[in-house]
Amino acid sequence: MEKRMLLAIIISIAILITYQYLAVKDTPLVTREETVKEDSVDKDKKEIPHVNKKAAEVPTAPAPKTDISVEKEIKVEGELYAAVFSTKGGTMKRIELKKHKDKAGNIIVLKGDNLLLPLSIGSDDSFQLSGVNFATNAKDIRLDSSAKTATLVFEHSSAGHSIRRTYSFYNDNYGIDLKDEVSGLDSYWITTGKDFGIYEKDDSEHFGPVVLKDAERMEFTEKKLKESKSFKEGVKWIAQEDKYFFSSIVPRSPIAETKVWSKNGDALAAIKLGAGTNKYLIYAGPKEYDRLKKFGVGLEHIVDFGFFSILARPLFWLMKLFYNVLPNYGIAIIILTIIVRIPFIPLINKGQKSMKRLQEIQPKMAEIKEKYKNDPQRMQRETMELYKKHKVNPVGGCLPMLLQIPVFFALYKVLLIAIELRGSPFMLWIKDLSAKDPYYILPIVMGVTMVIQQKMTPSAMEPTQQKIMMILPVVFTFMFLTFPSGLVLYWLVNNVLSIAQQFYMNKQLARQSA
């Protein structure tokens, strides 16, 4: 049974590492394909509420014809971001997230590729209007507590069609309202752009296009897009994402089609709409779950809690609750680890007792193996009788470990993706719980606690097997060297609690033996 427990641990960790570093990097596309159809769009589809009702009160100034031979940039700055818009395509060129900085202390900037900016439009998927200069009379916009909202208007007319784009901004919100008034075209596309919303690539997490269809989050990578994917119904939004940041287009008007395809070595996503007036919610910023949920459009699903999301979400909520009481995410992780372990204490105690009894009958088991080594069936019967006589449950030792695996997976995902931990200090040398320990102290101490734990835990293994088991702490230590400090802290605290519980149980068992 010790072998089974070891196998369970190894398989669990192998699945975890493989999933994070291999499977996620090459996430397969959804198997269900929806081919492009000419079905009519549901005209009764409800519009998503505006980000801010006051936007309707902001008068939209006309955009007179100006010299459009030269590209013009307009800067829009509020409390949370500073964005740069361009007359070239009437699109957003870049956005600085003022509340978030990189390791060098510089403000994080999300920017699009010069070949295809986000919000680019076209009469087909070639996006030929992305290079056309729009007219505007706008100047730089500054938002603050006294000027909470503002609009920016771009206009373009040519070859029998016209487009008027109106952006509405809010001082304390990453959300931007966009209204397109299109005439002279039967339909048009609008895209997330190339890599916009991707600040840094992390092999442990997906980066690239994401589509939310009904309640299903679908990830796409350029490597797997051998042919384009098209969806007719149920699409809530499209996005470009990395580990902590993303940009998204949420259609407020009925859409005709959603498409994901590969172009020039990059994966792109776009939605197709009919002519007339179409509205969108634009979001470019951090993956802050609570902030995103307030929009009420499903944007919170961009935060991928993984397979065990049903456990991860309440654990995430608890961690933030503890942080609100004691504003230190390191302390919040410690408290969360203790709380999560409490329900497993009775099971762990029972398992340890079972392992102790199994250790005591080991000599008799060896006798049975030797006596019936040529009769496997008889050996199994005699072994089961021995278990029954001494009231030993052969799976009792590994059951608590197996039951804790889903919780470990859920906590692992929470601590890996939570932007709240990004740049959040714990104490002393741990300045960022989302980054590895710069001096590798936590992983080494964690490895030491694993050795102590193994020495204290009753074992029914042979001496040779026990020596092999001692390799595990070394393997785990090297594996955790590059893990986020928050995750290592959780594992370390859990080991310390295990040692304390094992110490107590050993004393209890010693008293019973006496």
Characterise this structure.
- The protein has 12 helices and 16 strands.
- The protein has 514 residues and is of the alpha+beta class.
- The chain has 2 domains: 2-18 and 312-513, no CATH class; 69-304, Beta-galactosidase, Chain A, domain 5, CATH 2.70.98.90.
- The chain is elongated and about 95 Å long.
Structural class: alpha+beta
Shape: elongated
Any idea of the CATH topology of the largest domain?
Beta-galactosidase, Chain A, domain 5
Unreliable parts: 1-8, 15-65
| Number of distinct beta strands | 16
Largest sheet: 11 strands, antiparallel
What is the distance, rounded to the nearest whole angstrom, between the alpha carbons of the first and last residues?
27 Å
Residue fraction in strands: 15-25%
Secondary structure elements and pairings:
Blueprint: H1 2-23, E1 73-77, E2 81-86, E3 91-101, E4 107-111, E5 121-122, E6 141-142, E7 149-158, E8 161-170, E9 175-191, E10 208-213, E11 216-219, E12 229-231, E13 235-241, E14 245-251, E15 257-263, E16 266-286, H2 289-293, H3 309-325, H4 329-341, H5 345-360, H6 362-371, H7 376-389, H8 399-417, H9 441-456, H10 463-469, H11 471-480, H12 485-513
Parallel strand pairs: 1-6
Antiparallel strand pairs: 1-2, 2-3, 3-4, 5-9, 7-8, 8-9, 9-16, 10-11, 10-13, 12-15, 13-14, 14-16, 15-16
Helix pairs in contact: 1-8, 3-4, 3-8, 4-12, 5-12, 6-7, 9-11, 9-12
